[in-house]
Amino acid sequence: MIPLHQLPIEIFVLIITRALEPLRTFCWSRSTYLARLVRLCQVCKHWKDVIDDTPSLWTAIHVMDPAVITSTAISRSAGHPLYITAAPPDWLYRSPDGLDELINMAIPHSTRWRWLQVIVRSSEEALAIMNAPAPLLQTLDLKSTTQIRVGSQKGGAALGGDNPQLRRLGLYRVAIPWDSCLLRGLQHLSISELFSFAPSCGEILGILGACPGLVELKLSLYNAGAVEGPKRSTPFTLTELRSLSIYLDLSWTSALLETIRFPSVESVSLALNFNNSDFSDLPKLAQHIQALFPVVFKSQYEVLITITGSTCLCWEPRETTGGSREFKITAMNIPVPAAKECIVQTLLHRFPANAIEFYLNTTPYSHLWAILQEFDGVEGVNNIRANYSDLDAVLAYMSGPTTRDQWGFPELEQLSVFDCDYDPERLLSMVEARYGLQAGDGSDVADKNQFDLPPPFQLITICHKDGEADWDTLELVEDILGPGCHYFHERTER
């Protein structure tokens, strides 16, 4: 093999560029792009000379870099476009040191900005950035820890012109004039965490209509009020959109899905907040979801259904072929009848899943029992995992035929229980009933035996805190299950 220092300089520079590329616009540790570059300069004099004399290697600047290194990089990068990140991973919890100094250094070089991600702490700071001439800027990401609104002339230009190269815009708690030229011709758009300054549903539709080449859309405006007045707008199509993520009021979600077509979408995430909702939009929303789902999933799929507490239900399918397509629905503050209409009737009955896994997390008995009744008759449930939940409802449901004259979860293969509340005798009774060893509560053996027994469990896993397991009962369960079908563990608190 040829030693690196004997390679042609162009090849050597290309290797360094490709190696450091992931750090150019993303940093997950204290070791930034420039920190790694400076470290490479210390390998030998030849490496240092080549790196020092290559302006394109000095174009990525991060707020975590010392000011002297930042100044050196800006000087050495000559006329090359700059990638500036002024928001560390934990920016939401602390203001980074050196933020003001970095912004003051960056503003005079705005004509070289290619990527700018920055925390702004006032509307004046945001306006200064938006008014700076930046003809090369392709990505602008403005973040704030508080709600701020940037005022400017209605419909006026920003960044010194019409911004023909801007393709990616992110606004986190930052509101700009919603008719701004920044909101035209985008490929990636994210607007999040705005309350009183949020755009109206009509303004959002206007923005999306002005971005026909949009590829990725994220809207998280869950505290915005319901749509008021007429909801109908002229339908249009976003033919290039691949990723759709929205966390909105039910009426907003329904209005967007009714107005816009997404023929090429591959990833959908809908967060539905049922708080203070009159549910009048739910039937129409269900129809739109039914129409959108087969666009994403055209073949067999498996689904994970997560029930958290008494208010949140998440439905998350995944391709059985291991592909990357997604269609996630998270319903918050959801009453049980709405869960049935939103998830069971809309999706599971019309598009049956190949396999269904339940994950129960801090779920109380009363809510869980009601949910189980609504999911009664849904086929394909083969795995249940439970954490910190009251599991007696599940054990009772699985102990015999339900209202649909079949066993509760008749295809269940695995049950995993971690630090849950349950009656050990009910667990034993459930296992005995499903293995044909007793009738179970409230049934006589003759009636129970007219139904085919479900298949035996492949694995039951039970984990308790130290001193909480009823080992006598668990050993009886173990005797029924047989070797290799159980894993009981009692862990010690650290």
Explain this structure.
30% of the residues lie in helices and 24% in strands. The chain is an alpha/beta fold and 494 residues long. The strands form two sheets. It has a 17-stranded mixed beta sheet. The chain has a two-stranded parallel ribbon with strand order 8-10. Strand 3 (113-119), helix 6 (123-131) and strand 4 form a beta-alpha-beta unit. The radius of gyration is 29 Å and the shape is globular. The two termini are 51 Å apart. The model is unreliable at 439-446 (pLDDT under 50).
- Which of globular, elongated, flat, extended, rod-shaped describes the shape? globular
The largest pleated sheet is described as:
17 strands, mixed
Calculate Rg over CA atoms.
Answer: 29 Å
Helix content: 25-40%
Distance between the termini: 51 Å
Key features?
alpha/beta, 494 residues, 19 strands, two-stranded parallel sheet
Brief overview:
With 494 residues, the protein is an alpha/beta fold. The chain has helices spanning 9-20, 33-41, 45-52, 67-76, 99-106, 123-131, 201-209, 250-259, 282-296, 336-348, 365-374, 392-397, 424-434, 445-449, 471-481; strands at residues 60-62, 82-86, 113-119, 139-149, 168-175, 188-192, 216-220, 236-237, 243-249, 260-261, 267-273, 301-308, 312-319, 326-332, 355-361, 381-387, 414-418, 459-465, 486-491.
